[in-house]
Amino acid sequence: MSALEERSALPRPASLYAYALRLQRGEPDDRLPKGGCSRPDTRPPSPERRTRPRRDWRESVEAARKALEPLLTEADTARAAEEVDRRLREARVNIRHISTAVDKMTLHDEGRARTLGRRLTRTGTTAYAVGTGIVLLTRLGEPEDVPYLRTLGLLPGFTRSAIRALDAIDAPTAALLWLGRCTQGRELRPLIDALTARDDESARAWLLRVPMDPRAVDSTIARRIAQSVLLSDLLREDPVDKGILAQGARLLARMTSPRHDESEIRNYRDAVPVYAAVIARASRLTPSLDHYATLLALALDLHSGPSVLLDWRPGQREALLDALDSLLTTPGWASVLAAREPADPAERHRLRWARRTARQPFTAGPDPLPLRIEVVVRDPSDPDVVETRFLVDGRPLVPAAFGRGSGNSPEDLLHNGSLRATADGQEVQLAEAYCTEGCCGALYVTIREEGDEVVWGGWRGTAKGVVLPEYRFDAADYAAEILRAETDHSWSWPARTTARLITEGLRERPDLVGRWHLRGGRAHTDFSAPCTVVLWFVLQPEEDGPWLQFSWRLPDDGTPPDEQAGAVLRRLAEEDPKGYTKISGGSREYAEQLGFPWPEG
């Protein structure tokens, strides 16, 4: 008897699918167990690190390919399934190597490979076997595989791969699994239970009443909610429920947020029909500040954000922008901007944003410029960074070439002259990943002047697979566009203008800070309190010695920004700021040594 026949004769443990299914059926209505299911430990101990071969990523992927590829054409699927675990263990590879290998393989017999994938997911007893089956079904799965993948996704270690496989077959089921396994908020549990039980009325009722707080519903959750409730279908109903229409617009606007690894609007396959449905029916909404701001946020992204990159029919996006422009300038909607300012500071700030921004997405000419630079402030109800957008021939550069964060702030690109061209050339960071450059990178370009042209080239940090060409612009036109962008402050609000004027004053007179043995002195607006300016300084007499950071918070007092900035600069000239600012970082021991109180909490 061969070794394979001996193994086949031994009692087989229950498959991991059967284990997960048994746990799932223990829940009422077969709902998704909160937090998923624990997975039995069916794997032998991992080999000692010193026994693993020293290989780079490509070598490991190639080892996975050599181990797996012969089994994909094996006529005896049962025999092939038995061999998968042994071969992959001997190859010393992990599931990521296997996934990459399968993605790159030329499958000569997709039918047999699909059959093997199904056998592994339904009968596999080890993580290697089941994980490989899910990888195969990611590429080859069909609707009949959905219930198996959904159930296996409840087991830790399989969730992400099962969601990836389901995304290609059944996006609503993938979204439901993602919501159930990857979110912690109790607000979403009623939706998950209703969709699992196929209770459409309860799901609809939840969608109508759930608050779109960005702390609970981020861009990824917004996309998964839209997928799970089949938002595109709901918006095609006639008549459409006004509450669902409003929530659909809010979900779409939330998906455009850059506050994620990538813009979720581009991952939402129904984005184009949902945009079309929302805008076609937007006139049914009651004019209000919330509705106006949401529609304006959509217009901003259609004009210069990641939504420009969606798969539009020729002229379709422009037609939607024209429709929004026509709607928001009708007397009923225009009256929203003319309304009396709210007493609530947040609502007042939002209304002022809408007034400043109302025309920005509707000012493009018939032919896109070779380079257009715009500063965009998002809806204050979904606070985010102020971003600089670059449109090259009408297409947004940063989301197309980078995608892991938005363009840097105007303070970092425009107010300091970073985008000006020089004969020697200079490298400029255009965008940084939302998580930080050290984590997920940044996008860099070298800007240089060559005769009567300005060249953008020497790109660094582009997204995987993206190769950017050198962009060449007429030097005179480029200088004019940079000057326009640098001097256009129409996007700014009073506190932001005050911060800019303070920073400019300190740049011109560094002695205002240096005389007090301090450095720093850059002003910015508080992320969570945008009408408050924060000015910080650092005290560090010795380069490698202890240090203290001092912060000065300056709420907007309603006086003109130039007067507020002037008052700050005069006080810095006359009084040591260490006496009237607060410590916000550094060494507690050093603070106590100098007699400064350490902040509580």
Show the helix and strand layout.
Layout: H1 3-9, H2 16-25, H3 57-68, H4 77-91, H5 95-104, H6 110-123, H7 127-140, H8 146-152, H9 159-169, H10 171-182, H11 189-196, H12 200-209, H13 219-228, H14 231-235, H15 242-255, H16 271-281, H17 289-304, H18 316-328, H19 331-338, H20 345-357, E1 371-376, E2 387-392, E3 395-396, H21 397-401, H22 410-413, E4 426-432, H23 437-440, E5 442-450, E6 453-460, E7 471-474, H24 475-487, H25 494-508, H26 511-514, E8 519-525, E9 532-539, E10 548-555, H27 561-574, E11 582-586, H28 588-594
Antiparallel strand pairs: 1-2, 2-3, 4-5, 5-6, 6-7, 8-9, 9-10, 10-11
Descriptive notes:
The chain is an alpha+beta fold and 601 residues long. The protein has helices at residues 3-9, 16-25, 57-68, 77-91, 95-104, 110-123, 127-140, 146-152, 159-169, 171-182, 189-196, 200-209, 219-228, 231-235, 242-255, 271-281, 289-304, 316-328, 331-338, 345-357, 397-401, 410-413, 437-440, 475-487, 494-508, 511-514, 561-574, 588-594, and strands at 371-376, 387-392, 395-396, 426-432, 442-450, 453-460, 471-474, 519-525, 532-539, 548-555, 582-586. Helix 9 (159-169) packs antiparallel against helix 10 (171-182) and helix 11 packs antiparallel against helix 12 (200-209). The relative contact order is 0.05.
Question: Residue share in helices?
Answer: 40-55%
The general outline is globular
Which consecutive residue ranges, at least 5 long each, have pLDDT under 50? Answer: 41-50
Supply Rg. 29 Å
User: How large is the count of helical segments?
Assistant: 28
Q: Oligomeric form of this entry?
A: single chain
Percent of residues in beta strands?
5-15%
Query: Biggest sheet: strands, sense, closure?
Result: 4 strands, antiparallel
